[in-house]
Design brief:
Length: about 325
Protein backbone atom coordinates (compact mmCIF):
# COMPACT_ATOMS: atom_id res chain seq x y z
CA UNK A 1 0.00 0.00 0.00
CA UNK A 2 1.28 3.48 -0.86
CA UNK A 3 1.37 6.64 1.25
CA UNK A 4 0.56 10.27 0.36
CA UNK A 5 4.24 10.87 -0.45
CA UNK A 6 4.30 7.95 -2.91
CA UNK A 7 6.55 5.75 -0.82
CA UNK A 8 5.29 2.40 0.42
CA UNK A 9 4.55 1.81 4.09
CA UNK A 10 7.04 -1.05 4.08
CA UNK A 11 9.80 1.27 2.86
CA UNK A 12 8.80 3.89 5.45
CA UNK A 13 9.02 1.29 8.21
CA UNK A 14 12.43 0.17 6.91
CA UNK A 15 13.69 3.77 6.88
CA UNK A 16 12.39 4.39 10.41
CA UNK A 17 14.14 1.27 11.70
CA UNK A 18 17.44 2.38 10.13
CA UNK A 19 17.55 5.99 11.29
CA UNK A 20 16.35 5.14 14.80
CA UNK A 21 18.96 2.33 14.95
CA UNK A 22 16.01 0.09 15.87
CA UNK A 23 17.15 -2.57 13.40
CA UNK A 24 20.62 -2.76 14.97
CA UNK A 25 19.08 -2.83 18.45
CA UNK A 26 16.88 -5.75 17.46
CA UNK A 27 20.02 -7.76 16.64
CA UNK A 28 21.26 -7.01 20.18
CA UNK A 29 24.85 -7.65 19.12
CA UNK A 30 27.35 -5.59 21.14
CA UNK A 31 31.09 -5.20 20.81
CA UNK A 32 33.64 -5.15 23.65
CA UNK A 33 32.83 -1.48 24.42
CA UNK A 34 29.10 -2.20 24.77
CA UNK A 35 28.34 -0.49 21.45
CA UNK A 36 25.99 -1.77 18.76
CA UNK A 37 28.31 -3.92 16.67
CA UNK A 38 29.07 -2.17 13.38
CA UNK A 39 29.71 -5.50 11.68
CA UNK A 40 25.96 -6.14 11.97
CA UNK A 41 24.52 -3.06 10.27
CA UNK A 42 21.57 -4.24 8.19
CA UNK A 43 22.21 -2.32 4.97
CA UNK A 44 25.93 -1.97 4.23
CA UNK A 45 27.47 1.50 4.20
CA UNK A 46 25.69 3.32 1.38
CA UNK A 47 22.92 5.96 1.19
CA UNK A 48 20.05 3.45 1.01
CA UNK A 49 17.56 5.77 2.78
CA UNK A 50 18.35 8.69 0.47
CA UNK A 51 17.98 6.46 -2.60
CA UNK A 52 14.56 5.28 -1.37
CA UNK A 53 13.39 8.84 -0.71
CA UNK A 54 14.80 10.36 -3.91
CA UNK A 55 11.97 11.74 -6.02
CA UNK A 56 9.34 11.30 -3.30
CA UNK A 57 10.10 14.33 -1.14
CA UNK A 58 10.87 17.81 -2.47
CA UNK A 59 14.35 18.77 -1.23
CA UNK A 60 14.66 21.92 0.83
CA UNK A 61 15.79 24.55 -1.72
CA UNK A 62 18.27 26.06 0.74
CA UNK A 63 20.02 22.79 1.51
CA UNK A 64 23.60 22.64 0.24
CA UNK A 65 26.17 19.87 -0.06
CA UNK A 66 28.18 20.38 3.11
CA UNK A 67 30.99 18.66 4.96
CA UNK A 68 31.54 19.41 8.63
CA UNK A 69 35.21 19.09 9.59
CA UNK A 70 35.63 17.93 13.19
CA UNK A 71 38.43 17.05 15.59
CA UNK A 72 38.20 14.99 18.79
CA UNK A 73 40.64 16.38 21.36
CA UNK A 74 41.34 13.29 23.49
CA UNK A 75 44.49 14.81 25.00
CA UNK A 76 45.65 18.40 25.40
CA UNK A 77 49.24 17.59 26.41
CA UNK A 78 51.61 14.64 26.14
CA UNK A 79 53.12 15.61 29.52
CA UNK A 80 50.63 13.39 31.34
CA UNK A 81 51.46 10.08 32.96
CA UNK A 82 49.54 7.74 30.63
CA UNK A 83 51.00 9.53 27.58
CA UNK A 84 54.50 9.27 29.09
CA UNK A 85 53.97 5.55 29.79
CA UNK A 86 52.75 5.03 26.22
CA UNK A 87 55.78 6.86 24.82
CA UNK A 88 58.14 4.87 27.05
CA UNK A 89 56.59 1.54 25.96
CA UNK A 90 56.69 2.51 22.29
CA UNK A 91 60.38 3.46 22.56
CA UNK A 92 61.59 0.58 24.74
CA UNK A 93 65.13 0.89 23.45
CA UNK A 94 65.47 4.29 25.09
CA UNK A 95 66.20 5.00 28.70
CA UNK A 96 63.56 6.64 30.88
CA UNK A 97 65.81 9.71 31.05
CA UNK A 98 65.89 10.13 27.26
CA UNK A 99 62.11 9.59 27.09
CA UNK A 100 61.54 12.38 29.60
CA UNK A 101 64.03 14.59 27.73
CA UNK A 102 62.11 14.06 24.47
CA UNK A 103 58.90 15.16 26.20
CA UNK A 104 60.51 18.60 26.59
CA UNK A 105 60.38 18.76 22.80
CA UNK A 106 57.08 17.03 22.09
CA UNK A 107 55.05 17.71 25.28
CA UNK A 108 53.25 20.61 23.60
CA UNK A 109 53.01 18.81 20.24
CA UNK A 110 49.21 18.72 20.36
CA UNK A 111 48.90 22.48 20.94
CA UNK A 112 51.33 23.09 18.07
CA UNK A 113 49.43 20.71 15.78
CA UNK A 114 46.17 22.48 16.56
CA UNK A 115 47.81 25.82 15.71
CA UNK A 116 48.89 24.29 12.38
CA UNK A 117 45.36 22.94 11.83
CA UNK A 118 43.80 26.34 12.51
CA UNK A 119 46.09 27.98 9.93
CA UNK A 120 45.38 25.25 7.36
CA UNK A 121 41.63 25.51 7.88
CA UNK A 122 41.63 29.31 7.68
CA UNK A 123 43.49 29.03 4.35
CA UNK A 124 40.86 26.55 3.08
CA UNK A 125 37.76 28.48 4.21
CA UNK A 126 36.88 25.82 6.78
CA UNK A 127 34.98 26.42 10.01
CA UNK A 128 35.40 23.30 12.13
CA UNK A 129 34.23 21.84 15.43
CA UNK A 130 36.71 20.80 18.14
CA UNK A 131 35.21 18.29 20.58
CA UNK A 132 36.88 18.39 24.03
CA UNK A 133 36.79 15.81 26.81
CA UNK A 134 35.94 18.03 29.77
CA UNK A 135 37.14 15.73 32.57
CA UNK A 136 37.67 15.27 35.42
CA UNK A 137 40.99 13.59 34.66
CA UNK A 138 40.93 9.88 35.37
CA UNK A 139 43.35 6.97 35.39
CA UNK A 140 40.51 4.49 34.82
CA UNK A 141 41.12 2.26 31.80
CA UNK A 142 39.13 4.47 29.40
CA UNK A 143 39.07 7.56 31.62
CA UNK A 144 39.54 11.15 30.43
CA UNK A 145 43.22 12.00 29.92
CA UNK A 146 42.63 15.74 30.15
CA UNK A 147 40.40 18.22 31.94
CA UNK A 148 38.80 21.47 30.81
CA UNK A 149 40.31 23.01 33.96
CA UNK A 150 43.91 22.30 32.93
CA UNK A 151 46.02 25.15 31.56
CA UNK A 152 46.86 23.07 28.46
CA UNK A 153 43.14 22.65 27.64
CA UNK A 154 42.28 26.27 28.33
CA UNK A 155 45.11 27.48 26.08
CA UNK A 156 43.84 25.33 23.20
CA UNK A 157 40.21 26.37 23.81
CA UNK A 158 41.28 30.05 23.65
CA UNK A 159 43.14 29.46 20.36
CA UNK A 160 40.22 27.56 18.80
CA UNK A 161 37.70 30.18 19.90
CA UNK A 162 39.88 33.07 18.67
CA UNK A 163 40.06 31.36 15.26
CA UNK A 164 36.24 31.41 15.08
CA UNK A 165 35.82 27.63 15.38
CA UNK A 166 33.10 25.86 17.37
CA UNK A 167 33.73 24.16 20.74
CA UNK A 168 31.81 20.91 21.28
CA UNK A 169 31.67 18.36 24.09
CA UNK A 170 33.45 15.03 23.60
CA UNK A 171 31.30 13.04 26.03
CA UNK A 172 33.44 10.75 28.18
CA UNK A 173 33.56 6.98 27.76
CA UNK A 174 31.56 6.44 30.96
CA UNK A 175 29.10 9.36 30.51
CA UNK A 176 26.18 7.28 29.31
CA UNK A 177 26.62 4.79 32.17
CA UNK A 178 27.00 7.44 34.88
CA UNK A 179 24.61 10.08 33.48
CA UNK A 180 27.27 12.82 33.53
CA UNK A 181 26.57 14.63 30.26
CA UNK A 182 25.11 17.73 31.96
CA UNK A 183 28.06 17.98 34.40
CA UNK A 184 30.57 17.56 31.56
CA UNK A 185 28.77 20.21 29.52
CA UNK A 186 28.88 22.66 32.43
CA UNK A 187 32.63 22.15 32.98
CA UNK A 188 33.35 22.77 29.31
CA UNK A 189 30.97 25.74 29.06
CA UNK A 190 32.74 27.33 32.05
CA UNK A 191 36.14 26.87 30.38
CA UNK A 192 34.92 28.07 26.97
CA UNK A 193 32.73 30.81 28.47
CA UNK A 194 29.99 29.93 26.00
CA UNK A 195 27.13 27.47 25.72
CA UNK A 196 27.83 24.04 24.22
CA UNK A 197 25.51 22.92 21.39
CA UNK A 198 27.47 20.14 19.66
CA UNK A 199 28.43 16.69 20.97
CA UNK A 200 30.30 13.56 19.93
CA UNK A 201 30.93 10.67 22.31
CA UNK A 202 34.43 9.33 23.00
CA UNK A 203 34.76 5.91 21.26
CA UNK A 204 31.42 6.69 19.53
CA UNK A 205 29.85 5.01 22.55
CA UNK A 206 26.25 5.94 21.81
CA UNK A 207 23.19 4.06 22.98
CA UNK A 208 20.05 4.23 20.86
CA UNK A 209 17.74 3.73 23.87
CA UNK A 210 18.80 6.40 26.40
CA UNK A 211 21.73 8.29 24.90
CA UNK A 212 19.87 11.08 23.09
CA UNK A 213 17.52 11.72 26.01
CA UNK A 214 20.57 12.38 28.21
CA UNK A 215 22.01 14.74 25.61
CA UNK A 216 18.71 16.58 25.27
CA UNK A 217 18.57 17.06 29.04
CA UNK A 218 22.12 18.48 28.89
CA UNK A 219 21.06 21.10 26.34
CA UNK A 220 22.79 19.59 23.30
CA UNK A 221 21.28 20.60 19.94
CA UNK A 222 23.44 18.56 17.50
CA UNK A 223 24.97 15.13 17.93
CA UNK A 224 27.77 13.79 15.70
CA UNK A 225 28.32 10.34 17.22
CA UNK A 226 26.61 8.01 14.75
CA UNK A 227 29.13 6.58 12.31
CA UNK A 228 31.61 3.77 11.87
CA UNK A 229 34.82 3.50 13.91
CA UNK A 230 36.47 1.68 11.00
CA UNK A 231 36.77 3.24 7.56
CA UNK A 232 33.91 5.18 6.03
CA UNK A 233 30.19 4.87 5.33
CA UNK A 234 26.71 6.02 6.35
CA UNK A 235 25.68 4.18 9.52
CA UNK A 236 21.95 4.96 9.26
CA UNK A 237 21.81 4.87 5.46
CA UNK A 238 21.41 8.62 5.08
CA UNK A 239 23.71 11.58 4.44
CA UNK A 240 21.07 14.09 5.53
CA UNK A 241 20.92 15.34 9.15
CA UNK A 242 17.66 14.31 10.80
CA UNK A 243 15.75 14.87 14.06
CA UNK A 244 16.37 12.12 16.56
CA UNK A 245 13.52 9.79 17.49
CA UNK A 246 13.48 8.53 21.07
CA UNK A 247 12.49 4.87 20.85
CA UNK A 248 11.70 4.55 24.58
CA UNK A 249 9.45 7.63 24.75
CA UNK A 250 8.19 7.19 21.16
CA UNK A 251 8.73 10.90 20.52
CA UNK A 252 10.92 13.24 18.55
CA UNK A 253 13.63 14.96 20.57
CA UNK A 254 14.95 18.45 19.87
CA UNK A 255 18.29 17.09 18.67
CA UNK A 256 19.58 16.87 15.12
CA UNK A 257 21.84 13.92 14.30
CA UNK A 258 24.57 14.78 11.78
CA UNK A 259 25.79 11.64 9.97
CA UNK A 260 29.53 11.00 10.36
CA UNK A 261 31.01 9.84 7.06
CA UNK A 262 34.49 8.86 8.19
CA UNK A 263 37.05 9.08 10.94
CA UNK A 264 40.80 8.55 10.99
CA UNK A 265 42.31 5.30 12.20
CA UNK A 266 44.95 2.80 11.28
CA UNK A 267 43.81 2.96 7.64
CA UNK A 268 44.92 6.61 7.40
CA UNK A 269 48.52 5.61 8.13
CA UNK A 270 48.69 3.45 5.02
CA UNK A 271 45.89 4.66 2.74
CA UNK A 272 46.07 4.04 -0.97
CA UNK A 273 44.62 5.25 -4.24
CA UNK A 274 41.65 2.85 -4.04
CA UNK A 275 40.71 4.27 -0.61
CA UNK A 276 40.65 7.80 -2.00
CA UNK A 277 38.60 6.69 -5.03
CA UNK A 278 36.08 5.00 -2.74
CA UNK A 279 35.80 8.08 -0.51
CA UNK A 280 35.37 10.31 -3.57
CA UNK A 281 32.55 8.07 -4.86
CA UNK A 282 30.77 8.27 -1.52
CA UNK A 283 31.25 12.06 -1.42
CA UNK A 284 29.72 12.28 -4.90
CA UNK A 285 26.66 10.45 -3.54
CA UNK A 286 26.44 12.97 -0.70
CA UNK A 287 26.67 15.81 -3.22
CA UNK A 288 23.92 14.27 -5.37
CA UNK A 289 21.56 14.24 -2.37
CA UNK A 290 22.75 17.67 -1.17
CA UNK A 291 23.68 15.98 2.09
CA UNK A 292 25.65 17.23 5.09
CA UNK A 293 28.13 14.84 6.70
CA UNK A 294 30.96 15.02 9.20
CA UNK A 295 34.55 13.85 8.99
CA UNK A 296 36.78 13.41 12.03
CA UNK A 297 40.56 13.66 12.41
CA UNK A 298 42.19 13.53 15.85
CA UNK A 299 44.87 16.17 16.58
CA UNK A 300 46.81 13.47 18.48
CA UNK A 301 47.02 11.34 15.32
CA UNK A 302 47.98 14.37 13.21
CA UNK A 303 50.66 15.30 15.79
CA UNK A 304 52.31 11.91 15.75
CA UNK A 305 52.05 10.75 12.14
CA UNK A 306 52.58 12.86 9.02
CA UNK A 307 50.86 10.20 6.87
CA UNK A 308 47.60 11.07 8.66
CA UNK A 309 48.15 14.73 7.76
CA UNK A 310 48.66 13.71 4.14
CA UNK A 311 45.40 11.74 4.20
CA UNK A 312 43.53 14.67 5.79
CA UNK A 313 44.79 17.09 3.11
CA UNK A 314 43.76 14.72 0.30
CA UNK A 315 40.25 14.39 1.68
CA UNK A 316 39.95 18.17 1.99
CA UNK A 317 41.09 18.40 -1.65
CA UNK A 318 38.27 16.01 -2.66
CA UNK A 319 35.74 18.12 -0.72
CA UNK A 320 36.98 21.31 -2.42
CA UNK A 321 36.97 19.74 -5.89
CA UNK A 322 33.36 18.60 -5.39
CA UNK A 323 32.32 22.06 -4.18
CA UNK A 324 31.48 21.14 -0.57
CA UNK A 325 30.55 23.95 1.80
CA UNK A 326 32.84 23.50 4.82
CA UNK A 327 31.88 26.71 6.61
CA UNK A 328 28.84 25.54 8.67
CA UNK A 329 27.16 28.55 7.04
CA UNK A 330 23.56 29.63 7.48
CA UNK A 331 22.58 27.49 4.47
CA UNK A 332 23.56 24.19 6.04
CA UNK A 333 21.12 22.06 8.03
CA UNK A 334 23.17 22.82 11.15
CA UNK A 335 21.36 26.12 11.44
CA UNK A 336 18.01 24.48 10.78
ZN1 LIG B 1 37.77 10.33 21.65
Amino acid sequence: MGTASGISQADLAFIASLVSLGHELSHAVRDTHGRLDEEHTPHGRGAVVDHLLAGTLAPCPQRRFSVIITHDVDRTTLCECTAIAKLFIETRSRTLRSTIRSLGVCGSAIARTIDELLCFEADNNIRSIFFFLSGPYSLARYGSRTSARWGSAQGIIRAVTAAGMEIGLHGSYYAKDNGTYADECRRLADAAQSSIRHHRNHYLRYDAEHFWRHLSDAGIAFDHSVGFTTGWGLRTGTCIPYPVYDISAQALLGIIEVPMLLMDGTWTQQFNRADMDSIRTLMETVRRHRGCVGIDFHPESLATNRAVWDCFRRIIDICRELGADMTMSSHTPLQG
